[in-house]
Amino acid sequence: MELLWRSSHIAGGNATYVEDLYEAYLRDPNSVPEQWRDYFDKLPLVESQVANLKDIPHSTVRDRFARISKMRVRTEATVAHDAQATEYERKQVRVVQLISAYRQRGHQKASLDPLGLAEREHVADLELSFHELSEADLDTAFQVGSLHIGRDNATLGEIVDALERTYCHHIGAEFMHIVDTAQRHWIMTRMESVRSAPDYGPDVRRQLLRRLIKADGLERSLASKYPGTKRFGLEGGESLIPMLAEMVQRIGSYGAKEIVIGMAHRGRLNVLVNILGKKTSELFAEFEGRAQYESSGDVKYHQGFSSNVMTPGGELHLALAFNPSHLEINAPVVEGSVRARQDRRNDTVGDTVAPIVIHGDAAFAGQGVVMETFQMSQTRGYRTGGTVHIVLNNQVGFTTSKREDARSTEYCTDVAKMVQAPIFHVNADDPEAVLFVTQLAVDFRNEFKRDVVIDLICYRRRGHNEADEPSVTQPLMYQAIRMHKSTRDLYAERLIMDGVISEEEDSTLVEGYRESLDRGEPLVSSLVSEPNTALFVDWTPYLGHEWTLTCETGMELHRLQKLAHEVNVPPEGFPLQRQVSKILEDRRKMAAGAMPLNWGFAETLAYATLLEAGYPVRLTGQDVGRGTFSHRHAVLHNQKDESTWIPLQHVAEDQANFDIYDSLLSEEGVLAFEYGYATTSPSGLVIWEAQFGDFANGAQVVIDQFITSGEHKWSRLCGLTMLLPHGYEGQGPEHSSARLERFLQLCAEHNIQVCVPSTPAQVYHMLRRQTIRPLRKPLVVMSPKSLLRHKEAVSSLEELAGGRFHCVLDDPDIADRCGVKRVILCAGKVFYDLRAERRERGIEDIAIIRLEQLYPFPEAELLQVLSQYPNLVDAVWCQEEPMNQGAWYSSQHHMRRVMYSHLEHVYLGYVGREASAAPAAGYMALHLEQQQRFINDALTLPASAA
């Protein structure tokens, strides 16, 4: 063969074949046989091509072959010999193509459906005839190239057998879409070296059976004790339990200290009991209504849990995240929680904390937040070192099973290809294949710190829930399911047939688990009875505080001035853009007292003072570095080399971390991530800023299901701050309102804070109060747009140093409060419009009072301010928003209660835009006309009052 290689490969008649081979070499050097790779490596390069081998034109190759070919002495013997060699080499190329085809499309031929109902399209690429090979070639030896078969040459029959067993049995692997050669070859090596079926020993196989018995036994017990009760059981997908058990132990063996698991309903109770070690006695009490709740609570299959387990790498903390019924929205929440835990451990790689997210097949394919979560996976602000995604693939979504209705892609997992994640489809009825894929996925995540997907193809033995009758919509599928043995029974039969266990041993194991269930004891043998508390966050300092809790948010003036100067000095020789340089120069004047402070500088000082005091700050959003309205400039950009300088990261040597990231163009995924981060990081300030406040409605699921209700459903505290730019500036309906009314409608039981600060000092003290006060409630801020540069929306350094956050601001311009006949209550920017018009008209008997916090409503503070106006005869609430929007409908009863307790005869009226379907006018002229009208109404006393 070696002689054949040396004498025939450069024959002139082989030019086309060589060009094809060289084309493959340029794409992937390892895809061609070693001899060819060595030969191509040694091709002469012209000077301009040395830097990039792929720049060699094909003509260079052809010319070289032609020159060598002309130098050879050709005889009839060599011609015949060369013809024979050419035919062999042609087939050699076809064999290489066949191997490549199996790697790329073998998954489409794999036996993945436990029920055998899924129709698979015929894959022509995997036929010998497609590659101009035949059964007559099966005994011919060929070079195997990069195929791991134990030697350099093998017969075609051996090659096909190896490929079939590796790629077309119970595992279907999709990985050839990955452009990174190291990752592809890592997967090839792991799979091909054992034919995707390692020879597991008796102990491992018995352990697999025991875990299946646990999964199967719990479902049978719950079905018999509580028939017809919703529990979203795992029947048909029991292999999830041995998969998770192995995953936890293997991740722990790499030295991880924490795992955060996210999942929806199906199988959740089983995971709680058999993976996290929740006592069955507690679970049974919940089913029977005997459980004690500290809040309004949630259904059993939404509850979270945490525990510590022992692994080969030491003790590991397991946390199962709470989840609402919005299925995939839990994924970015888990990612945020994981990132917070990693940041707490100063883990920038992802070694110490790992995320596992379990999805449903229909939701994975259908929910857009899945794409957003994948898109975040490798970005600076959101990476977590790779996530292991498990798709619990029931092959039906509620009642939808036809692929042409459920999705437009072949697999429900195809969205994962967007980040080049490997996808391993596995037949759930083969527990050993499941075990192998689990080990493969964990090792891949550990090696490359990237996402990996396991598509656990199973079925749903019962309906969408236990009270549902599935045969109404899937008669043939459920006819097959009724006749199909459980995974546990099938595997037990397999082990009995192999002589690993006896029927008596199998019965003993089943009975033993049933007895453990009845005793109500923890069923996880690796559970740690006395957990190491250092592995998780201590929330004790943040529990049990009332809303009346106050804190000091001022600070010594000289110290504040020093900080104010230092955060506005760029490094020497750092060229700034002209406007940015002017902004920093102005801020230095503000620090010196030569200019009043504007909004952006006051906000920056809030962060600086917190960082110096040891409170970490995380700020994310689509344009937070500069600020959508160019007011923040927390990240400075070198105008020569585009390097950056973040002054707030250089406040003090021992300061807390300041993390600021411009996010991807996402609201739902990013806000969910930040919620998860804030629920795991109580010690600092976590902020998400919307590009425009209006855009927050793209994350309404997060607001409804987590931010406003998480504490009362799950006793889950969260100090997340949302900055939502809000204000009517004539910019149309999509750039005006942050939908204040929606947040106020969700307010109850002191669940969130809603603030509308109107001065720089107010935002400074508000942010400091949110962090320093050990009360962890979400803060929703209607932040301004035009006020960022409004000449009157300024504060002094003294107001920052010695002030506090005021929930109500009295009118600063009224000298004679006894002469005031009307009071205008308002919030936000409209105060400045009202004041400007009042000043122009010379009105002195109308006071304008600002509500800076709309919820919890500051009744005591408002009463205190109103009590200074004893001669009121009229009062109005004035807002920019239409009457059916803004604060009016949700807050008028609060205002009236305070008003009537002071002056019973004064009726609170409404002044503002009329009710409207759209948030704002789209035409500037109409906007100005509406604004002038309601400002005039607000400043015109009725005849009775005059």
From TrEMBL:
Its EC number is 1.2.4.2. One of its GO terms (biological process) is tricarboxylic acid cycle. E1 component of the 2-oxoglutarate dehydrogenase (OGDH) complex which catalyzes the decarboxylation of 2-oxoglutarate, the first step in the conversion of 2-oxoglutarate to succinyl-CoA and CO(2). Keywords: Glycolysis, Oxidoreductase, Thiamine pyrophosphate. Residues 597-790 form the Transketolase-like pyrimidine-binding domain. This is 2-oxoglutarate dehydrogenase E1 component. Its cofactor is thiamine diphosphate. One of its GO terms (molecular function) is oxoglutarate dehydrogenase (succinyl-transferring) activity. It comes from Pseudohaliea rubra DSM 19751. Pfam families: 2-oxogl_dehyd_N, E1_dh, OxoGdeHyase_C, Transket_pyr.
